[in-house]
Amino acid sequence: MQKRSLSHKVFAVVPAAGSGTRYGPGTRKPFLLLNGKPLIIWALEILESVPDIAHIIPVLRKSDIPGGKQIFQQYKISKIMRTVEGGKERQDSVLNALAGIRENNSIVLIHDGARPFITGEMIQSALHELDGFDGVVVGMPPKDTIKETEHGLIQKTLKRESLWAIQTPQVFPAQVITAAYEHAYRERYYATDDAALVERYGGRVKVIKGSYRNIKITTPEDLAFAELLLSQRHIQQKNRHIKKPATPT
User: Fold this and answer.
1) In this structure, are residues 198 and 177 in contact, taking their beta carbons and an 8 Å threshold?
2) Looking only at Cα atoms, what is the longest distance across the chain?
């Protein structure tokens, strides 16, 4: 089903300024090659293809900005409004990007540059579910049993049916997410995702289904798994195009 167009301008913020310490020292993770293409480009190309998205704001480490701009031009990512320098933490990086969004009557979509398997359908679903809420996030129910522990001892087993593993994209009205970030900055409060800040200040955030394939590349094993997923996708696409032999009469 085709989604109706949004009446609000959408800004896509793509944080990719992390140090990559879990991947390995000296790693420039946004530019790691996944199937021959820089990791961040996978997400940017999908964001570029969604008509509702007006501007893209990548956030990179200062040393990565010159090379990043060249790569963005090479892959013809035309919606880039500007490339922003990242901060010490991911939250600082997103705040730097939000500071340049002056149109309050707009929507901000935040998506990790290290999640290459975002889809246009996922983006559109999140955007069009925002009406009436202070935010929408994508996620998936966990497959494993989740236990709460303290000092290595299990305290309780959580009800799996009420739990979600949260991903990106996450979308918010610009005024809501900017205010939440500014409040958190003043209080020096840091959270692990954007929605947690909106929740902290009383916002209503809806969760919708993303995809188990929407993984974040954090370690070399993640990159190898992503390559495997791409190989499987290629095989599936190839099989769909193979014509079945005619049935003998």
Assistant:
1) yes
2) 77
